[in-house]
Amino acid sequence: MDIAIVGAGAAAVGLLDALAATAERPGDITVFEPSPDLWRGRPYGPDLDTVLVNSPPAIMSIRHLDFGHYAAWLGTRGAAHLDELLGQPLVPRALYGEYLAHTAEAALATLRDDGWRVRIVTARVTGAARSGSRWSLRTEDGRAHDADQVALCVGGGTPQDHYGLGRAPGFVGDPYPLARTLDQVPPGSDVAVIGSGLTAVDVVVSLAARGHTGQITLLSRSGVLPHVWQRPVGHRPQHLTAERMAALHREHGVVTLEDLIGLLRAELAETGEDFEAFAAELLATETDEPVRRLRAQLAAVDDSRIGRRVLQVAAHTVGPYAWRLLPEPDRVRLRRHFRTATSVASPMVPVNASILMRLLDCGQLAVAAGVRKIEAANGLFQVRSDDGERTADVVVNAVNPPPRAIPRAAGHLVTSLLADGSAGLHPSGGLVPADPRLHVVGDFAGGGPFITSSIPGIAAQAARAAQAIAAAQDAAPVT
User: Fold this and answer.
1) How confident is the model at residue 277 (pLDDT cuts 50, 70, 90)?
2) Are 373 and 447 in the same domain?
3) What is the rounded CA–CA span in Å between residue 50 and residue 93?
């Protein structure tokens, strides 16, 4: 069997690791990736040491259901990157990229030892079409490559320029890698950062580490900052688990949002916590004053209550599975709270929250909600928001790409798959294969999880794709 893997980021690493464990009869694997930074993707390439992995090691394993895989690789190196408030190692994302590269190379070594032939093609795939019982892939150099199974591991989209600032001097359209883009920012300039999520936090923390002296303002429509990770307490969920969801699905044929709320309610009842108070706290995320909430959450890093801890871990571990079981009306209800959900499920790490708090307290950092318009004029940027107008010398675009958006580099490939009828676009974004020999792993998977960019979610998708490929391989005649 010939397997083509398009892309060589975290999704491809998870797929190769799963294939090394499941595929038995050897064949050929071709990985297509034009970037020199194999296995890292956009998020985990070389960058500043201030750009940290934003999650504890237990939910950063690229090997499905092996929650200690990343921590075991990290070993004693983690001690040099300990977040003292969290009590967990939080390493630079470039170091996590080394973990991904190590996992990929180990998987390739295993596959080669098992008789697989593996090659890397450093060219972009620009088209794919079914050719009889096989696929024909075209690369940008005009060559054709045949395959039996194709896995798209093309990553996510790119940040949108919501305010049409384009090539205006002083506008940074895509902040990563910050090691390159922040070199363009004068240390005394007034900087406006579009967005208030984890990317915006990376920008602020990195500016502070470089000794920036100018004013920094986070601009967003909501003004919602990410929640703050709490120190792990070793609680193991007894109710909000994949096993309980599977049992509900077997019994009722569906799992509803009310079912999930009931499981969370039972989880909190085990420790005597007030579910109604917890729910009210969550629902206040978008109306609370952001600085007050940040201060309260920093003070609660050691709070013994398990509510947010359970919800955060569940969002990454059982969340992708639960999302597949939910009826569409319940998915619509959850999407209405997308900003709150992402803030809770993807918190900032305490060390970064402390830096933001310090900058807010001294007045160097501000948060402006209700941003309506940003215009470039006379070498400056004019910002209009609900609380008035301000100017900035530099604007950094730190908005997240739309969930399941078409990656710019994969545009021609996706167009060819749609034209061929091999795939379709999901109503909520992403690509849905119409052929069982085509697999999509990662944020671009149509109908994928509510919270994108989750390593456990990507690892689960990779494991399912590897199982499907292995099943197809078992069913194919031996030649």
Assistant:
1) very high
2) no
3) 9
- Of 315, 302, 301, 371, residue with least CA distance to 343: 315
Residue 209: its pLDDT value, please? 97
pLDDT of residue 386: 87
Is the pLDDT at 478 greater than 70, yes or no?
Answer: no
- Give residue 240's identity as a one-letter amino acid code: L
Domain boundary, last residue among 345, 360, 386: 345
Residue at 165 is within a domain: no
Rounded distance between C-alpha atoms, residue 291 and residue 284, angstroms: 14
Residue 319 CA to residue 237 CA, distance in Å, equals 13
Residue 333, Cβ density class (10 Å: 0-12 exposed, 13-18 middle, ≥19 buried): exposed
Max CA pair span of the chain = 72
Strand order in the sheet with 2-6: 117-121, 28-32, 2-6, 149-152, 438-440
Q: Which CATH number characterizes residue 128's domain?
A: 3.50.50.60
Q: Where are the alpha helices (DSSP H) in 114-197?
A: 178-181
Same domain, 262 and 315: yes
d(CA 323, CA 319): 6
How many domains does the chain divide into?
Answer: 3
For residue range 343-364, list pLDDT tens digits in order.
998 899 999 999 999 999 999 9
CA nearest neighbour of 13 among 125, 128, 99, 121: 99
Which residues does 335 contact at the CB level (< 8 Å), separation at least 6?
Answer: 428, 450
